[in-house]
């Protein structure tokens, strides 16, 4: 019987190049660590305590705070998820109204559920050609805040999985005119602001709370992240209190050592590391101009947004190749593992730990696949991955705890969902408990299932039935 440990130990021999997180890319030439069993301790004398740091952990956190130029920084060993939960709950009271990007990660929705918040949704522009969301427009934030003066917090995701960066500076100014804090899920942007080739971090553009997964785009272990808080509107003490409640009381010293090593290395080498990183990406994108059938996303067209080139988004729309087929060919023919696929594209995720050989392998593979791919007349798209604007009949907390019944999935149109439905990745709910389901959504889910995209959230793992609120 094969066990997980043995499979992980043997995987490195398979020579599969990781175009996915974590950002250290298994690059042992840059990073190494002794046997983790020799370093796995608890809060013993001389090694401080993450929840009340006074010594060596405090010094490590202080280095991270200075690197990111925050007023307060916290190490997270439960991922960005715990940072989002703590940050949102610290910025709100029970049943407050929040303005939230509808394309936020499920962790944001979990915070909304736990605090019984009333969400008002911001729907970013949808790019039909690539099948992804683009930026949240500042003027739409202003309009919604004028229409909903009871909003107590604005929550956005920037950058998105695909690298779209909203105009955080303008949005922060609009929020602060009304004394409302702005929380940004920057899980995919821990590398931002370290070189002019990349957009600036939300932390330097006026956001009040910023959460970053350093394991995604920086050289740190999976599950590690940072929460940054700026003085002013948000109570730093409340952030600390919620982190103490939600984060493990036995934080892993191995994970914390990984964060510390990431921060230490970045402080010492960020200039040359990010300069080389930028040049590698520029060379790659230049080579990709040879593509004739596949397409490479080059950012949103709006003047109010930016684009993070670290995400290589490979589009297959208008070709005889599906995203699933692209993924399989890259993996089985060229030994390249993508980060994720959606219906119209795949994402290759990069960091400064990628090697020249890695970029060359990806470039060679895409050019070869492109030559064997043909353009086809695009069929009328009836079910794009565009989150439908479903009527909200109850908030999520009420819906989850309401009496429910189980109905066939195909017959759920017109019923109020009692559970989440989302594709993973990226983990954005396309239906939230309390929303009224419609036929367009159900047909769209079926189309994505046929395209090989994994559906999550439903209690029925066969996806034949769904929980809906019982009719009275």
Question: Key features?
Answer:
472 residues; alpha/beta; Aspartate Aminotransferase, domain 2; Molybdopterin biosynthesis moea protein, domain 2; seven-stranded mixed β-sheet; four-stranded antiparallel β-sheet; 33% helix
Question: Would you write up a description of this structure?
Answer:
This protein starts with a helix and ends with a strand. Among the domains are: 228 residues, Aspartate Aminotransferase, domain 2, CATH 3.40.640; 74 residues, Molybdopterin biosynthesis moea protein, domain 2 (Alpha-Beta Complex), CATH 3.90.105.10. With 472 residues, it is of the alpha/beta class. It is globular and about 60 Å long. It contains 13 helices and 22 strands. Helix 2 runs parallel beside helix 9, helix 3 crosses helix 4 and helix 9 packs across helix 11.
**Strand residues, percent:** 15-25%
CATH class of the domain at 36-263: Alpha Beta
Question: What is the count of helical runs?
Answer: 13
Indicate the percent of residues in helices: 25-40%
Radius of gyration: 22 Å
Per DSSP E runs of 2 or more residues, the count of β-strands stands at 22
Shape: globular
- Note the gap between the termini: 51 Å
